[in-house]
Amino acid sequence: MKVIFMGTPEFSVGTLEALIEAGHEVVLAVTQPDKPKGRGGKMQYPPVKETALKYDIPVYQPKKIREEACIEELRKYQADIMVVIAFGQILPQAILDMTPYGCVNVHASLLPKYRGAAPIQWAVINGEKVSGVTTMQMDAGLDTGDMLLKTEVVLDEKETGGSLHDKLAEAGARLCVETLKGLEAHAITPEKQGESPTEYARMLDKSLGKIDWTRPAEEIERLIRGLNPWPSAYTDWTGKTMKIWEAQVISQEEAKAAQQQETAKPGTVVKVEKDGFLVQTGKDLLKVCALQSPGKKRMDAGAFLRGYTMEAGEKLGSEG
């Protein structure tokens, strides 16, 4: 098929490469404009642009895809289908209807679950045991189009947002190739979506990572994994921001067996061990196993405790 590929971040790259390897003719890669990065403000290409240039595929970077000039530009390529994966702009109906096979989206959840911008991280944060990828025929709604194919991915016990991202990117690439093959053979029956059983997977921001120690340890531990590597979970310690990268839930029963105090307020360090420290939460204890203090690299908690003094009774998190 002649394909216009629309995507921007690293998550999209594997699918672009899989389409090329499967023999499809990618006639154009549409991606977001270059952005300045770092202190020097040097312009950086989106990952999809870097990949497209490597394969000598023309690149188009419209600021607003809805503009008539952009729509006319896409028409010139007379593509059979458009493949959209994490592009970052809402497509107008004129583009959705432009090609014979329409626009196929690769979405990182088992729709209708987790419609929205951050389905991968919210699956981890919410404690899902299984996630996956869905290909769908795009319509005017937000992730509401008819479903084409699905594939499931089981989450590991210590799954992070980053590790699930990589698994779903790989699964999505395979599923997209399978979907185009099925569409071309008229072997796929689109399926309507029902109501979503989950909240909209809203975009992540740094404020989401602030740990509320009154929440149960199990919830906090999932938050830490879901926001790893970005934007990361964090707390306040001695007036500075401490990022927490890895933690372990210690049940109240285990705490009692270890003769820990039960009256500590949430956020209180109740015990300091060689390889970590235990913090009281709203339910159970959380053992911090890996962290990062300002200006330092990520380190295991044991290494941190060899360089810093932390004692039982200290408080994490800001008051109020």
Features:
single chain, 320 residues, alpha/beta, Rossmann fold, Methionyl-tRNA Fmet Formyltransferase, Chain A, domain 2, six-stranded antiparallel beta sheet, elongated
Structure explained in plain terms:
With 320 residues, the chain is α/β, with parallel strands linked by helices. It folds into two domains: 2-184, Formyl transferase, N-terminal domain (Rossmann fold, 3-Layer(aba) Sandwich); 206-307, Formyl transferase, C-terminal domain (Methionyl-tRNA Fmet Formyltransferase, Chain A, domain 2, Roll). It is 27% helix and 26% strand. It contains nine helices and 15 strands. It has helices at 10-21, 47-54, 68-75, 93-96, 119-125, 161-184, 217-226, 252-257, 301-307, and strands spanning 2-7, 25-30, 35-37, 42-44, 59-60, 81-85, 103-107, 130-137, 146-154, 233-237, 240-250, 269-273, 276-280, 285-292, 299-300. Strands 5-2-1-6-7-8-9 form a seven-stranded mixed beta sheet. Strands 10, 11, 12, 13, 14 and 15 form a six-stranded antiparallel beta sheet that branches. The radius of gyration is 23 Å and the shape is elongated.
Series of secondary-structure elements, N-terminal to C-terminal? EHEEEHEHEHEHEEHHEEHEEEEH
CATH T-level fold name of the largest domain: Rossmann fold
- Tell me the strand percentage band: 25-35%
What is the CATH class designation of the largest domain?
Alpha Beta
Radius of gyration: 23 Å
Give the number of domains: 2
The strand count comes to: 15
> Mind describing the biggest β-sheet?
7 strands, mixed
Portion of residues in helices?
A: 25-40%
Task: Classify the secondary structure makeup into a structural class.
Answer: alpha/beta
Q: On the 0-100 scale, what is the average pLDDT? A: 95
Low-confidence stretches: none
Tally of DSSP helical segments: 9
The neighbouring-strand order within the major sheet is 5-2-1-6-7-8-9
Shape: elongated
Distance between the termini: 58 Å
CATH architecture of the largest domain: 3-Layer(aba) Sandwich
**Assigned CATH superfamily of the largest domain:** Formyl transferase, N-terminal domain
